[in-house]
Design goal:
By secondary structure, the chain is an all-alpha fold. Helices cover 61% and strands 0% of the residues. The protein contains 3 helices and no strands. The termini are far apart. The model has no long low-confidence stretch (mean pLDDT 92).
Amino acid sequence: HWGIVDLVALVSQEKKDVPTSQGMERSQSSLFFAARQAGLPEKLCSVRQAIADRDFNALGKLAEAEALEMH
């Protein structure tokens, strides 16, 4: 459908203070967890539309907003 690729750069091999699985478990006790869950269907719809439209700019903005919201 769309010739884009994902690139991952490993910037450190040091062990993280909080493993990803533990961080995910902790996130469920966040005061923001329910609100984030409630907003996911709308965000997913926007991501799917950006992909269908091959709108890399929109997809990038959505991905960046999601990353900032999680961290």
